[in-house]
Write a structure and sequence with these properties.
single chain, 433 residues, two-stranded antiparallel ribbon, 16 helices
Length: 433
């Protein structure tokens, strides 16, 4: 099965970036999320259609050393280099794409245009990093991009089609009012899916009606949920903050899993529960931002109750884990945290300093997919990184151990959807003696 390059990119476009972009562009987070969900497969499709374009291959090859992934909001969203690349990819189709995305997401054309640049920067940067990590030359990159042509149409969210973005002709769809959407596999009958299309109109400021209707969502809603919906639903339903967390038991999970065939692991994606609101959590008169009943609140309550002090030994503590909700690593890395992670680490440091007798252990977990040796190594490395970060903050003596458990405690079947398997991926902390 071909690698889906969107799995390499989505970690760069998480809730923290959505929140930052919404503030920067003056849009709602749901609108920004919806726009990104539509732009990402369009950009991947554009690159796939230009997989033998020397300029595109040069841009991807140079992206790994350009630092573009570290400055997506301030750099890529207004970069003339990215604008030039977009012109090379889409030509005179850019304005139509911008209008269609603005209409679909209910945002302004200016915001849609900036997001197109931003997502393109995240895409070439992520593919460039993957290519560098796996020693892919330009021929290898070209082959990787070419493999995406067969899956682009299935990754578009409900409400968008290749035709509505004026890209149908690139992948055999043409620009007529109906076309065959999915190519059959060998030995399977051909299934014709009819799409109705609407022309991308002008959008001088903001459009709230959706265009480019499609009945694909009625025929294969489950496929759309797995292949494309993960990004949209996660962003719309989960409000990212830098200091808030939730808690689950020791088998819940949220970090990435090492991939079986590539060093780049798959980042967690899940449909979040109802949005929770930050509240002040009292830490001996110091107010921490966190969920009422969340990780910080539960840890502080446990320490104040005397239950830690009265615990006879480590065995009395080992079954209660507190899961990090916003401490996440960048895809394929055990040393780089995603934006929004530091706040919760700072909260943990504050708790440990307020209770200097308390000791903890860090744990890392993965789901059942991938090579188990790689899973254990990745989870162990990430746990060690967090231990090191706490040591630098002055509480290293209170961190007794950092352990990677791989998929040892995973419960969800490896054949389940990525959204279901996300329950088995996490970083967590427990008290220890």
């Amino acid at each position: 099965m071909s690698l889906n390059v969107i799995d390499l990119i989505k970690g760069q476009l998480g809730p923290a970036l959505v929140s930052q972009a919404a503030s920067q562009f003056g849009e709602s987070e749901s609108g920004i999320s919806k726009a990104i969900g539509g732009i990402l497969p369009a950009v991947v499709g554009g690159l796939a259609n230009n997989s033998d374009n020397p300029g595109v291959l040069d841009a991807i090859t140079n992206a790994s050393s350009s630092g573009i992934l570290g400055n997506l909001i301030g750099g890529a969203s207004s970069s003339p280099v990215i604008s030039t690349l977009l012109t090379s990819i889409f030509g005179d189709k850019i304005s139509g794409i911008v209008n269609a995305i603005a209409t679909y997401a209910g945002i302004s054309n200016n915001s849609s245009s900036s997001l197109l640049n931003l997502v393109t920067g995240a895409t070439v940067g992520s593919i460039g990093k993957y290519a560098a990590d796996n020693n892919l030359d330009k021929s290898g990159i070209s082959n990787l991009l070419g493999e995406q042509k067969g899956i682009v149409s299935s990754l578009l969210p409900a409400g968008l089609s290749l035709a509505s973005l004026n890209l149908g002709s690139w992948f055999g769809g043409g620009s007529s009012t109906s076309h065959a959407e999915a190519a059959p596999k060998p030995g399977e009958p051909k299934i014709e899916v009819t799409r109705s299309t609407t022309a991308a109109g002008t959008n001088p400021d903001r459009n709230n009606n959706e265009g480019g209707g499609s009945i694909w969502k009625w025929l294969l809603p489950l496929l759309l949920l797995i292949a494309a919906g993960y990004f949209l639903w996660k962003q719309c339903e989960k409000k990212q903050t830098t200091t808030t967390t939730t808690t689950t038991d020791s088998t819940a999970a949220k970090t990435d899993t090492a991939a079986t065939t590539t060093p780049a692991d798959t980042s967690a994606t899940t449909t979040a529960p109802a949005v929770k609101t930050d509240e002040n959590i009292d830490l001996n008169g110091v107010m921490l931002k966190g969920y009422k009943g969340g990780m910080e609140d539960q840890m502080i309550t446990f320490l104040k109750s005397g239950n830690y002090k009265n615990a006879a030994d480590d065995a009395a503590l080992k079954d209660k884990w507190y899961d990090f909700d916003h401490v996440n690593f960048k895809i394929g890395s055990a040393t780089e945290l995603e934006a929004g992670s530091q706040g919760q680490l700072d909260n943990l440091v504050a708790i440990l300093k307020a209770f200097p007798d308390a000791k903890i252990k860090i744990g890392g977990y993965t789901d059942k997919t991938g090579n188990e040796a790689s899973n254990v190594k990745l989870s162990k490395s990430r746990a060690e990184f967090i231990k090191g970060a706490l040591a630098k903050a002055g509480v290293g003596a209170q961190v007794l151990e950092a352990e990677g458990y791989g998929s040892k405690y995973a419960k969800v079947d490896a054949k389940a959807s990525d959204a279901e398997r996300a329950a088995d991926r996490k970083m967590a902390v427990r008290f220890a003696k």
